[in-house]
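Q: Sequence in, structure out?
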Amino acid sequence: MSDLVYLNGEFIHSDEAKISPNDRGFIFADGIYEVIKYYNGKPFRYQDHRDRLERSLHEVGINFSGIIQLKSIFEKLINVNQLENSDAGIYLQITRGTHRRVHHFPENIKPTVYAYAFELPSFTENLKNGIKVITNEDIRWLRCDIKSVALLPNTMLYNQAVEQGAGECLLIRNGFVTEATHSSFFGIKDGTVFTHPASNLILPGITRKVVIEICRQKNIPLNEKAISEKELFELDELFITGTGSEITPVMQVNETVFGNKKPGELTRLIQSEFFKLTN
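A: Exactly. Output:
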């Protein structure tokens, strides 16, 4: 496998990729990112990812003019790394660029653009049997709607989940579940699907958007309403969503087991409808 990456207009081997230590992504985590999944060489919901990318760039004031070229760059990365016949991911990171260390946004600097392709198979065991999650206080900043590379709080919280043998960490802010460290959250009660409403407190997940569309198309009752921590443990079914998570059932939260450790029927239906769209 070639292991070629894209950096600032060039396709080069990953061990040849060099970024300045004065890059603001390194100094300040001053950048945004996207992860797009390719099923058998085809991008899933590319336009939605592009729209979110443009929104994040706008929100942090990074002036990047190369949006149109990205799709062909990603396709080349998939092909040269021989991933066109498998499930793969594209990671894209755009930082403000290289400049001496100042606390304001410098003008007239060129963004640093880095992308690479990688294998991204489905986590079959998790999709089939579900996962355990833990809960913790949402210690992140107040602009979670921006897909920022500043992920230290997320990784700290997720690491606690890993240390406890869990697959994710649900985040609680002011008594309500927002989302998870790198996934969106859905709960089901009496046949109604609940998820936190779009706001600055959650990322507008692409898979989250697909699930909402599935619910509307299948006439599944949907309520974009935040679930309280108390209500969390009274749900009938739970699942998380994301580019990597896809539709993953949650079978245990902390010490509470749900559904006799078997994914619920409505979760299975939504999961099935999702994978129909990826074929």
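The chain has a mean pLDDT of 97.
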